[in-house]
Amino acid sequence: MNSILLFLLQYREAIFIIILSLFLGIEVISHVPSVLHTPLMSGANAIHGVVIIGAIIVMGHAHDVLPMILGFLAVVLGTLNVVGGFVVTDRMLEMFRKKKSKK
Amino acid sequence: METIQTLIQYTPEISILEISYILASVLFIVGLKRLSHPDTARNGNLWAAAGMGLAILFTILFHKKDGESIGNIPWILGALVLGTAVGWVAARKVKMTAMPQMVSMFNGMGGACAAMISMMEFPKLQSTLAAAGASSMFHGETLAILFGLTIGGVSFAGSMIAFGKLDEKIGDIKAPWLRYLNLFFLFLLVVMVVLIMFKHPVSGDNTIIYLLVLLALVYGVSFVMPIGGADMPVVISLLNSFTGIAAACGGFLYSNQAMLTGGILVGSSGTLLTILMCKAMNRSLLNVIIGAFGGEAASKGEAGDKTVKEITLSDAAVLLSYSQKVLVVPGYGLAVAQAQHLCHELDVLLASRGVEVKYGIHPVAGRMPGHMNVLLAEADVPYEKLLEMEEANNEMQNTDVVIVIGANDVVNPAAEDDPSSPIYGMPVIKAWEAKNVIVMKRSMAKGYAAISNNLFYHPRNSMLFGDAKATLQKLIAEIKNL
User: Fold this and answer.
1) Which of B113, B238, B257 to mutate to test the interface with A (most CBs of A within 10 A)?
2) Is residue A26 located within the same domain as residue A43?
């Protein structure tokens, strides 16, 4: 019990951010039209690519061969997620824009 | 731990880095907000991308751990360049029809990245705890590592299977026992996480973490395997929010605010989006996950001795030219055949003869919500011509001809009148209420949900067999000759 309370205290900021972000995430996209479901999903997909920061941190402090290889791979995969995600989303939305200008 | 470190070794860089993370978080939030409105969507994507670039750049420049700056910079830059080149080319080159697969693929990469971070951090944490003489691994960081690993692994494996299914490289395995097997795997995963949490830390004893990865991957595969291909968008959206949570675990581990907000934001909005998508199909998330779509009930309403009426090209041309109102209902077949430009050509041609042409877009037509809108927008079809399902259905009785191009399940009357059908209750476009229906299809094959369609045998329906593109071409030529 004590260790759980200590845990809550130690990570109170993170827990705070998690709870607020949970509500924010729901609030921010709650009125999205169904046409935008796909681009929104794709855009969100790119945003979770922030995981790359973790990969950079691990890679930046790796000294042995195995962690170096894993770290390198992790950074490559994370970049794929970020770059691919944003570019694909942009391509989808490009077509919506064209439609707009015709209007 | 973290706060003590920052107190001991304060440098302005730490503040700058934290400010950049706050900025990045704000950009993510604003970006996501803008992404959910048609007018600002494209711009919003760029905002979020800018936030990401900022966070990455400042991490490389200013991040310090125990006073040590980021090393291996050439390698990191190399990996960034490699990832950017491959990601950019893949995203640019991919055909519009293959977009959903691509999103799934990129999602999987993020999941794998999160899992790999955990795999590297676990041995480090274990040695630290062992050296400190801790009695068990019970620690917030252990929890974050294990969660990141499990969720990331499931997301990676699941996304790869979803990718394979959308690419039609992997079929569905529908067996009721898979459901129980999945529950068993899930139970095993939980047990393993608990076991690791309470195990005695021994430096170098990392076998169990590899076992956990393996199990997470197996679960990811068996989780997606029984779900029908038509439900993949929902699955991808769900796995997308999983990866968000995995990324947030990394943020927890490194006390990194940008990762934390970014990850949780995607986790929660992704979950909501998943539920919205399910609603568009009038099904619950649970139903999508455990209720195997198609499958056993598929044999019901089989063709039997019912007859199908065929229409010749010239008849179709005459019928269309002398109509007043025509509604085009596009589906995945249109996307596959890349016939959207021809479709627009037909619409312009008919309009020049005084026919009013509109498009009826089912929210889940194609392989993803909004798929048809994107495709038709590419072909310059004006926005006002695209009717949503309800509008289309309201006008149906006054419509002279409905042309169904490569769509099947979204115009299936079984959704309305056959309670035994797996798609019963799903809102559909009521093409059969129009005065005439022409279905353009390659063959009598079933749609993605693998159920037969009684619309084809409807007295007011006639079939026009052939590839959508070729048929449209001939039809246009035929109308021009009239």
Assistant:
1) B113
2) no
